[in-house]
Amino acid sequence: MSEYLVPLGKPEKEIRVKNSRFIASLSLATSVSSANAFIEHIEKKYPDASHHVPAYIIGHGASKISHASDDGEPSGTAGQPALAVLEGSGLGDVVVVITRYFGGTKLGTGGLVRAYSDAVRSLLNMTSKAKKVKAHLIKLSSPYSYYEMISKMVREFGGKEDKADFGGDVKMTLHVPSSSFEEFKNSILEITSGAVMPCLISTDENILLPITDYYDKG
To answer: Residue 52 is part of which domain span?
Structure first.
């Protein structure tokens, strides 16, 4: 599986254009059925809206499934512009619904395209992201004196610390991208002078790891 960006959380963003309200709602969706369930949820949340325009991308790259609908707006003015903004974001496994409450003033073809595009763009600007990767589940036991250094190393390699138990030693459970495991292990051995050995427990697909300043360390 190739690595790609996915959204976190379920943010919403509202913009107003000539008295019309455009409420953009977003969620992670790993299947068409989960995307459709979110679309249905938004339709029920705003049952009196004029339109619910959906767009989604399931997967990423050559194997992605994408879909958009104008939901009664003039053809090509709503769903496709929303989908184009999603595709430009680089996100996969994402669904967005733009709910419109008509404000009494027609926006015209160009105005609708801009409004739906801007609604999605504004929402994406406030959306937190993670990287979906193949990752190794690792356990290790460390003296307290190395704990901070190891935690920093986990972040530098784009991993996440799942759990730390503080007893006689610190017992850590963590995930690190599979592609970085050997380098990570060697770095831990080096900074601890061989005192700490990361143990590979399993390899997990589709793990969401945080985006850090150190992630693409080359």
So the answer is: 4-127
Strand pairing report for 199-210 and 65-68: unpaired
Could you report the per-residue pLDDT of 68-118, keeping only the tens digit for each?
Answer: 999 999 999 999 999 999 999 999 999 999 999 999 999 999 999 999 999
Distance of CA 178 to the CA centre of its chain: 19
- pTM for the model stands at 0.80
Q: Which candidate, 141, 98, 6, 10, places its Cα nearest to that of 60?
A: 6
Structural contact between residues 8 and 114, judged by C-beta atoms closer than 8 angstroms: no
Q: Say which DSSP state 91 is in.
A: B
Of 80, 24, 23, which Cα lies nearest the Cα of 57?
80
15 close to 122: Cβ distance less than 8 angstroms: yes
Q: Which amino acid would we find at residue 123?
A: L
Structure tokens at 155: 């972040």
Structure-token pair, residue 200? 């590979």
- Among 127, 159, 192, the domain boundary falls at 127
Same domain, 23 and 91: yes
